[in-house]
UniProtKB/TrEMBL annotation, chain A:
PROSITE patterns: COMPLEX1_51K_1, COMPLEX1_51K_2. Its cofactor is FMN. InterPro entries: NADH-UbQ_OxRdtase_51kDa_CS (IPR001949), Nuo51_FMN-bd (IPR011538), Nuo51_FMN-bd_sf (IPR037225), NuoE_N (IPR041921), Nuop51_4Fe4S-bd (IPR019575), Nuop51_4Fe4S-bd_sf (IPR037207), Thioredoxin-like_sf (IPR036249). Residues 483-528 form the NADH-ubiquinone oxidoreductase 51kDa subunit iron-sulphur binding domain. GO terms for molecular function: 4 iron, 4 sulfur cluster binding; FMN binding; metal ion binding; NADH dehydrogenase (ubiquinone) activity. Belongs to the complex I 51 kDa subunit family. This is NAD(P)H-dependent oxidoreductase subunit E. Pfam families: 2Fe-2S_thioredx (PF01257), Complex1_51K (PF01512), NADH_4Fe-4S (PF10589). PANTHER family: NADH-QUINONE OXIDOREDUCTASE SUBUNIT F (PTHR43578:SF3). Keywords: 4Fe-4S, Iron, Iron-sulfur, Metal-binding.
UniProtKB/TrEMBL annotation, chain B:
InterPro entries: 2Fe-2S_ferredoxin-like_sf, 2Fe-2S_ferredoxin-type, NAD-red_Hydgase_HoxS_gsu, NADH_UbQ_OxRdtase_75kDa_su_CS, NADH_UbQ_OxRdtase_Gsu_4Fe4S-bd. Residues 76-115 form the 4Fe-4S His(Cys)3-ligated-type domain. GO terms for biological process: ATP synthesis coupled electron transport. Its cofactor is [2Fe-2S] cluster; [4Fe-4S] cluster. It comes from the Bacteria. Keywords: 2Fe-2S, 4Fe-4S, Iron, Iron-sulfur, Membrane, Metal-binding, NAD, Translocase. PROSITE patterns: 2FE2S_FER_2 (PS51085), 4FE4S_HC3 (PS51839), COMPLEX1_75K_2 (PS00642). Belongs to the complex I 75 kDa subunit family. This is (2Fe-2S)-binding protein. GO terms for molecular function: 2 iron, 2 sulfur cluster binding; 4 iron, 4 sulfur cluster binding; metal ion binding; NADH dehydrogenase (ubiquinone) activity; oxidoreductase activity. It is found in: Membrane. It comes from Candidatus Methylophosphatis roskildensis. CDD domains: fer2.
Length: 604, 226
């Protein structure tokens, strides 16, 4: 719809809500999906929409507002007809996103984070959108735009000023490349539709589990739990229903391999889920796809429809009586913490994405408190190939404790960013050589919650025995200041903390403030000590892995790039973070004064 | 009989009890804020964290196991608890001297008990609303520590869902069940369990402030000669 028309005749919230609720059979477990669908039409979740949701779903208003308020992509206040979010990963920054954002704000005459006076547009930041190999990137109304540059920004501003509907914007803006640079078994092995399931029917469930066991396949999400064990535990857990969930909430900054896998080989993933369903006895499966990949929803739904047509999903799959299974795609809405499996399940159930107390683990008590397998996209894809080619074929590749291959999402300071598939055990140096990173000083493997590897460690290998990773591989050249990298990551964790437990909710913000303090030149060795104490508290007391790893980037860069911190410890004695001139900034802005008399100290 | 060791003392427990439940049943205490015996524990404040085999766990949610060794009242653990209290103090706007919950406040009492001498961190000074719209109760979210006891009480006991948490991370906030966002427009009442569980001064009955003299308030230290 033309935004001008949209502004003139706002869609009737009650009707939109009724339709969305009906599409989901009135099931409040689908609240996150319902909210997304309402917002896609209405631009925000207005009080009238909440009225309608309360009436249609029969839940209290607090439930709707509590859930909607949790997710970054849901708006309880208007954010304009064009909602621009710049991806704020460090790779976007390296590629100049900050300057582009300022340019856009200047162009549109708006302040970042605020809605334009005419209510048409807002410009803000968001966590990494998974386009690191083709950044800087942004989302406009949750649609990904890549390869931003000054001219593209100017064009976008013009389109917004002229109120051109998003659907009529040049298609090239929305082009997302796969950038596959190196393939191995996962991206390269031929695969015939339905082959994995036919193999399971031939081998039988115990035979298939034996192959999986022989393959030594471990979860690709980073933790590396043995897949065969997980599936077996779920299979053996007695329950009314079992579920299969594919974790495609690829939120770790610097990771984008699931996007490519779901673009190139979705059938491999869906078939892996289906054979898992066969083994554990599940009738229903979900793909939890991060909201940043909204543009994949229709293509993936078409793939699912095709599979239903070919009797690879639905009732009596492949003609086997009782083999009933189907897959739904649920979209996330801008919450990194939902990549944690129990938070993901809460979100799937239409709740705030707060990690659960564990045990019990999802494998015995997951979706709707039933046994649930949650695996990464790459894990399901690998399982399909193991079904076809056998466990020993898979185990022959990689290292003793890390069989198979790993998809790496390579970005940052290198000539050829993109997807690289290597057998496990590949050295960091080999990847650097292949991607054309001649002068790297460091690589962040596994994203902000992973490891910072410096030049002295480039011989180390990527595998569970040495450097485990979910796939992010961000390269930093010698010209980069590793303090800025750590500060970007710290801001990310503070933004993404779910707020449930005290240490993470407050501690990540305190850490962020301390890093800002150092950046402003107010640091002293005392602040250093404080960072170390906070790190200890977060690790020891946090409720989940997000809090446990929030200090990693700072600690690792302190250990390996101490000079970049020491440069900022300009004071030997403690200096308060409070700065009178900084506190007066708002007053200066309100009075329009920038003269020397409006400053206490030196004008900065 | 099932029993575990808490700082060297034997604590018996019934199967199914959490560590904190067993400790309280034995007449002992572990500092806590978000736990209340009437509701399902959820382990968010982390003040009740104890150490088992070198790992910190929330004693309100961790099940008791026979023969386990639990460390709680240790200098280093109390140091960690002090940090948590300091975090809670700087996160909100807590001005004890002018707060009518002073002396009956669990946050303040815990800070005294754990010998917290200063807030240590820079105050966040968040801009949070005070809601005086209800005839009998005042809702001052400046003092809210997001323990969600009122949320659980209203949902699980009162069956009303007057309160909930919204927002995320440091922007997590308490909301009420009204389109206006005002407590006065909800069906909240002084009869509700939720009206009596706030461990701090966020949900306060009106017109009874400062009625109890200093020295006789629940957490005042015992008088000399008592």
């Amino acid at each position: 719809m033309d935004p001008m028309t949209a502004l003139a005749e706002a869609p009737n919230a009650a009707t939109v809500v009724r339709d969305a609720v009906a599409r989901h059979g009135g099931d409040v477990h689908d609240l996150v999906q319902i909210l997304r669908e309402v917002q896609e039409v209405c631009d925000w979740i207005a009080p009238e929409a909440i009225d309608a949701l309360v009436a249609e779903l029969g839940v209290p208003r607090t439930k709707i507002e509590g859930v909607a308020g949790f997710y970054s992509f849901f708006y309880l206040a208007p954010r304009g007809a064009y909602r621009v979010l710049f991806s704020d990963n460090v790779t976007d920054r390296i590629a100049g996103s900050a300057g582009l954002k300022s340019r856009m704000c200047r162009n549109l005459w708006i302040e970042p984070g605020k809605v334009s006076e005419d209510g048409v547009v807002s410009v803000d930041l968001t966590s990494c959108t998974g386009m690191c190999d083709q950044g800087p990137a942004m989302l406009v109304n949750n649609r990904a735009i890549t390869r931003l540059g000054e001219s593209r920004i100017d064009e976008i501003c013009e389109l917004i000023r002229s109120r051109v509907p998003l659907d009529e914007w040049p298609a090239v803006f929305f082009r997302v490349d796969d950038n596959i640079r190196r393939t191995d078994m996962l991206l390269g092995s031929p695969f015939e539709l339905g082959a994995a399931m036919k193999a399971v029917e031939t081998r039988g469930a115990p035979g298939m589990l034996d192959e999986l066991l022989a393959s030594n396949l471990r979860g690709r999400g980073g933790a590396g739990f043995a897949t065969a064990t997980k599936w077996l535990l779920c299979r053996e857990a007695p329950a009314a229903a079992h579920y299969v969930v594919c974790n495609a909430d690829e939120g770790e900054p610097g990771t984008f391999k699931d996007r490519v896998l779901l673009t190139r080989r979705p059938d491999l993933v869906f078939e892996g889920m289906t054979l898992c369903a066969r083994l554990v006895g599940a009738r229903r499966g979900f793909v939890y796809l991060r909201g940043e990949y909204r543009y994949l929803l229709e293509p993936l739904n078409r793939v699912l429809a095709g599979r239903r047509e070919q009797n690879l999903l639905g009732l009596s799959i492949l003609g086997v009586a009782g083999f009933d299974f189907d897959i739904e795609i649920h979209l996330g809405a801008g919450a990194y913490v939902c990549g944690e499996e129990s938070a993901l399940i809460e979100s799937l159930e239409g709740k705030r994405g707060t990690p659960r107390n564990r045990p019990p683990y999802p494998v015995t008590c997951g979706y709707r408190n039933q046994p649930t397998v949650v695996n990464n996209v790459e894990t399901f894809a690998a399982a399909s190939l193991i079904a076809v080619y056998g466990g020993s074929w898979f185990a022959a590749v990689g290292t003793p404790q890390s069989s198979g291959t790993k998809l790496l999402s390579v970005s940052g300071d290198c000539a050829r960013p993109g997807i690289y598939e290597y057998p496990f055990g590949v050295s960091v140096g080999q990847v650097l050589a292949d991607c054309g990173a001649g002068a790297a000083q460091a690589v962040q493997v596994g994203g902000p919650s992973g490891n910072c590897i410096d030049a002295g460690e480039f011989a180390r290998g990527i595998c569970f025995e040495d450097i485990p990773t979910a796939g992010a591989f961000m390269v930093f050249g010698r010209q980069r200041d590793m303090f800025d990298v750590a500060r970007n990551f710290t801001r990310f964790f503070a933004h993404e903390s779910c707020g449930f437990c005290t240490p993470c909710r407050v501690g990540t913000s305190l850490l962020n403030d301390l890093m800002d303090k150092l950046a402003r030149g107010q640091g002293s060795p005392y602040d250093f000590e404080q960072i170390e104490i906070l790190n200890h508290r977060l690790r020891s007391l946090s409720h989940c892995g997000l809090g446990h790893s929030a200090c990693n980037p700072v600690l690792e860069t302190i250990a390996k790039f101490r000079s970049t911190y020491e440069r900022r410890l300009v004071h030997t004695q403690y200096v308060p973070a409070f700065d009178l001139d900084r506190a007066l900034a708002e007053a200066r802005q309100m009075t329009g004064r920038q003269d020397a008399g409006a400053y206490i100290g030196d004008r900065k | 009989m099932n029993a575990f060791k808490l700082d060297g003392r034997d604590i018996p427990f019934e199967p199914g009890q959490t560590i904190l439940q067993a400790v309280q049943a034995a007449g002992q205490e572990i500092p806590h804020l978000c736990y209340h015996p009437d509701f399902k524990p959820h382990g968010s404040c982390k003040l009740c964290s104890v150490r088992i085999n070198g790992r910190m766990v929330s004693s309100c949610t961790a099940p008791a196991h026979d023969g386990m060794t639990v460390e709680s009242d240790m200098p280093d653990i109390n140091e960690e608890r002090r940090t948590l209290l300091q975090m809670l103090f700087v996160e909100g706007n807590h001005f004890c001297p002018s707060c009518e919950k002073s002396g009956a406040c669990r946050l303040q009492a815990s800070a005294y008990e754990l010998k917290m001498m200063s807030p240590h961190y820079d105050h966040f000074f968040p801009d949070r609303p005070v809601d005086a719209s209800h005839a009998d109760y005042l809702l001052d979210t400046n003092r809210c520590i997001l323990c969600s006891l009122c949320v659980r009480a209203s949902r699980d006991v009162d069956g009303k869902n007057v309160f909930a948490l919204s927002g995320r991370g440091i922007h997590t906030r308490l909301i009420v069940n009204a389109k206006s966002g005002r407590l006065g427009d909800t069906d909240f009442s002084g009869e509700d369990k939720a009206a009596h569980v706030c461990p701090v001064g966020a949900i306060l009955r009106k017109r009874v402030g400062f009625a109890v003299p200093i020295g006789q308030r629940p957490f005042d230290p015992p008088h000399e000669g008592d």
